[in-house]
Write a structure and sequence with these properties.
By secondary structure, the protein is an alpha/beta fold. The chain has helices spanning 2-6, 36-45, 48-56, 80-93, 104-120, 135-145, 151-162, 165-170, 173-177, 183-194; strands spanning 23-25, 29-35, 61-67, 77-79, 98-101, 200-202. It has 2 domains: 1-124, Rossmann fold, CATH 3.40.50.10130; 132-203, DNA polymerase, domain 1, CATH 1.10.150.20. The protein has 10 helices and 6 strands. Helix 6 packs across helix 7.
């Protein structure tokens, strides 16, 4: 991975020991990278949420990249609902966005993109007038807006339409696309981010 990162444009890599996570990006975000078998093994053995708690307690933002193709969900028998529940717990309870990556090259590109975004966008909270969501609604919006091609406005429309994150991720692409302003491409991106083919993951 180090060699791949060094080939990403405008990315400089240094090696040091971290207390939490695998990569510290711009001193502003910590990334935990897990291959699909590692993710499922940690879920099966009960280590996943202890790791998530440490990430959530980090002094900077944290996120997780889940790396591997669909074929790597075929080594253990773990129910699909258990995996979806784990991803929702990471996002909603611990506030840790979960990104998907096909392979090491795509992970390296995501890390590079994250570094550039953190360089160009201030991490200070935006001052906005008027009503702002609080509590659980704010968490739901933050989680939903982190999905591919969604953003805050589309997240609001989806939550207004479906009511809960659970109903959004369970909805078929056709139902998602029927929400005004979502469209087929965004619907497919959301569906891809939370679903795999088949009724269960064979781990």
């Amino acid at each position: 991975m180090g060699a791949l990162l060094c080939r990403v444009e405008d990315v400089a890599v240094s090696v040091r020991r971290l207390r939490t996570g695998d990569y510290l990006i711009e001193e502003k975000a910590v990334l935990e990278r897990k291959r699909v078998p590692d993710f499922l093994e940690s879920l099966f053995e009960g280590r996943l949420f202890a790791q998530a708690r440490r990430l959530a307690e980090a002094p900077v933002r944290s996120f997780l990249i889940l790396e591997g193709p669909s074929s790597e969900w075929t080594q253990r028998h773990i129910r699909r609902e258990a995996v979806q529940g784990a991803m929702l717990t990471l996002s909603v309870v611990f506030g840790i966005p979960v990104l998907r990556s096909r392979d090491e090259e795509e992970t390296a590109r995501l890390i590079g993109y994250t570094a550039r975004q953190l360089q160009s966008i201030s991490t200070a909270p935006l001052k906005r007038s008027g009503w702002r969501p609080k509590g659980k609604r704010a968490i739901q919006l933050r989680v939903m807006s982190s999905f591919p091609s969604v953003g805050t406005k589309r997240a609001q429309r989806l939550l207004d339409h479906f009511g809960t994150l659970e109903q959004i991720v369970a909805a078929p692409p056709e139902a998602l696309a029927a929400v005004p302003g979502i469209g087929q491409q965004t619907a497919q991106s959301i569906h891809w981010a939370v679903h795999e083919d088949g009724n269960s993951y064979h781990v």
